[in-house]
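RETRY 2/3 - previous attempt timed out on the joint model. Re-submitting the same 586-residue input unchanged.
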Amino acid sequence: MDTIGELLGYEDPDKMRGFFRKKSKKLENKIKKLPDAVSEFVAESDYMAIGGFGLVRIPTAFLHEVIKQQKKVATCAFFTSNYDTDLVLINGMMKSVDMSYGIALEALGSPKVLRKYFENGGIKVTEWSNGALAWRYKAAAMGLSFLPVRSMLGTDTERYSAAKEIICPFSGKKYLAVPALYPDIAVIHVHEADMYGNAHIKGVLVADVDIAKAAKKVIITTERMVDTEYFRNNPQNTTIPFYLVDAVVEIPYGSYPAEMPYEYLFDIDYFKRFLQAAESDETFDRFIKENIYECKDFYEFISLNGGVERIKELRNLELGLKGSSL
Amino acid sequence: MNEKYYNEMELMICAAARIFEDGVSVSVGTGVPCAAVMLSQKLYAPNILILFEAGGIAPLLPSMPISVGDKNTMYKALQTTSVSDAMEMNQRGLVDYCFLGGAQIDMYGNLNSTIIGSHDNPKVRFPGSGGANDFASSAWRTIIVSPHSSRRFTNNIDFITTPGYLKGPNAREEAGLPQGTGPYKIITNLAVMNFDNDERRMALESVHPGVSIDDVVKNTGFELLIDEHIKQTEPPGEDELKILRNEVDPYRVVIGKKAQ
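RETRY 2/3 succeeded.
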C-alpha cells in the first residue's frame, strides 16, 4: 500500500547524533521560572511533544503560559491526548499535525469549537495509532530512522500515515516501517525533580521516557523539588536523567485540572465547564479569557476554580479516602 | 421476572463478561469493555490479566475509570509501564483478547473511529485510532461492542481505522498482520454476532430476549449470515446484576447510559 500522509518531525539520525553530541552533559542548575522557560524555549517553528496521557499528568501550567504568551508552535503530536492538545489548538496556526488520538476528552465528550478546526479542512492530519507514535518516539530514542512494526497494516490509518511497508530480510514478512519522530521540544510534568533535571515519575509512564530521549529540548515541570541526594541514594528512581533535560520548572499542582497520580484527581467539574463552554465560539472565547488570559498566574486560575479547598477534595478523591466520591 | 429487570447496557456487559476464560489476558479501554472485564474479574475469571495502554497492568479495578491512564487503571496494579510496552505485549502474542467500540462497522468487522466524509475535509472528525488499531492488529481475538443500527452497521464505512478481516479470507495475512488474529464476537443492544465461517463475514449467533431476527436484519445495513439455529442470548443473572450495580458501576457511569 502506498501512503499519502505528510511526514512530520522526522530527522536524519546522523544529523541528530551531531545535535546530541553538542548538548551539554554538565551538572548545571537548570531551574527556571515558568514565564522564562516558555519565552526562552518555545519557538514558532517547533514540533511540540507533550508528556502524560490527556487527562493524566499533563503539563497544564506550561501550556497555559504558552497561550498567555501567544506563542504558536508549528505542529504537535496528538498522541493519547485530549485537554493538553486542546490547549495547543487555542493559539491556532497549525497547518498539519500527527494524530493518533485527539480532540476528545475520552468518555467525557469532545470540544465542539476545536473539532471544527479539523472539520473545515483547516488542519491536515497524518494518521497514526497510539502504538505507532510511541514507536516513532522509540525509534528516535534508539538513534534510528525507523522501527518495523505490525500495526496499521491494511487500513486507511496506514494509507493516511507517512509510514512505509518493508519486507523483513530474515522472515520475509511484511512489516510497517514507522519513521523516527524527533520533536523540537518536549514538555513533561513529573512528581519530583532536582535542579539538574533528574526526574521521577510515579505510575504509568505513557511514552515519556522515549519522548525525553527523542526531543531536542526537554522541559521538566515538577510538583516538587528534591535534593540530588534523593537520586544518588535511589538511582532506580531516575525516570528521566539530567543529561536529557534543558530546564526544570517547579510548579505544584501543575497538572491541574488533570490528574497527578497519587497526588490529586482530575477535576471533572472543570472539564464539564470546559466542554460546555466549547459548544460555541463566544462562550469558549470568554472561558479562555477568564481562565487563562486574565489570570495573572497559574494559581489565580486554580483559585478561580475552587482553590486549595478544591485541591483538598481532589487529593482525598485520589487517595480514595472514605467519604470522598465523584 | 419480567423483561424490564435489566437494561440493554447491563445485558451487553453481562454477555461480554461471560466470554473470558479464567487466566486470559485482555487489552481494554474505558466504558462497556472495562465494565465487562471488571464483572468478569469479580465473577468468572479472577485471574484475568487486564492491560491498559497507558501502562496500567494487572490492576484490581475499584470502580470505572474515566481515562485510560487514570488512577483506577493502576489501582493495586502489579506493574506500571509504557504505551510501547503494552503494545509490544500485544505484538508478541501475549494478549488473548482486545475489546473495542467503534462509530461504524462493516461486514468484515472493520471499524471506523476517524472521520465521517472525506479524510481531508471531513464532515465529522472523531478522535482517531487511539490504541484500537494496535490492539486489533495483534491481539489474538477482537471483541467489539456497539449500538446496533443500519447507520453504524454499514458496508459504506468512510474510513477503515482498525482492521477486521479487511476484504475477507486471508486479507489480514496478505496485509502483513499476524497470523490467526481477527474479530471474534460483536455484542450490540440487539444481538451477539461472530465470524465463525470461511468467508470471515459477520454471522448472527444469538438474539437478545424480546428481539426478533427481523429486528436485527432491519438494523443492519448489510446482509448478515443467518443459519437456522439462532439461540436467544442468556439474560443477565441475579448475581451478575448485583455485582455489576453494586461493585462494578455504582455511580452508573456506564449502565446509566442509553445503549443507542
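The mean pLDDT of chain B is 95. Closing ticket.
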